[in-house]
Design a protein that fits this description.
With 185 residues, the chain is α/β, with parallel strands linked by helices.
Length: 185
């Protein structure tokens, strides 16, 4: 799912679901902040778009709860009752974007697309960090499952306790190809 859209206005929820669908985005619309919290977790791969003024928990309180859950989750705030100080405050707190109602669909879609790309990068970074951690602290600098990388790690384990300095050098195949091409000229 790409987007969770939170607004207590039925018509606005339906209109935005249509806009997201036409743009090829998968979206879920929920009528309250509480319902949004029921479907979101720290690994949610998408973006949250929420109205600020809603009965019960308002959008700013939802935004703060989501920040506590995952500070990197992009949250776009929308409101028909906002002002500049409110927008500046929300952005300073970490909101991804702030849109006053009524907003053009293209403006919301552009903000969502940018936020999705940011989210994708954050989650990929987390995945890579977990891979490094799983590989172990001693092997963290030498990732890879290729036979050459396995031999390198084994060699380093063998010399690790020796009282010698070790310099590991390497080069990429593309760099080697470029060197050969440039050295023949």
């Amino acid at each position: 799912m790409d987007v969770v859209f939170v607004d207590d206005d039925d018509t606005l929820r339906e209109a935005n679901l249509q806009s997201f669908a036409l743009e090829g985005l998968t979206a879920m619309a929920v009528p309250s902040a509480g319902r949004a919290l029921d479907v979101l977790d720290a690994d949610f791969p998408g973006v949250v778009v929420t109205d600020i003024r809603m009965p019960g928990m308002d959008g700013l309180a939802l935004f703060r709860r989501l920040r506590a859950l995952d500070p990197d989750l992009p949250v776009i705030l929308i409101t028909g009752h906002g002002d500049i100080p409110m927008a500046v405050g929300a952005i300073r707190e970490g909101a991804y974007h702030f849109l006053p109602k009524p907003y053009p669909a293209e403006q919301l879609l552009a903000a969502v697309r940018h936020a999705l790309e940011k989210r994708r990068l954050v989650l990929e970074n987390r995945r890579l960090a977990r891979a490094v951690e799983a590989a172990g602290a001693e092997d963290g600098a030498f990732l890879g499952a290729a036979p050459a990388m396995r031999r390198l790690r084994e060699t380093l384990r063998q010399v690790a306790d020796a009282a010698v300095d070790v310099l590991v050098e390497g080069r990429r195949a593309a760099a080697r190809t470029w060197w050969r091409a440039s050295s023949t000229r």
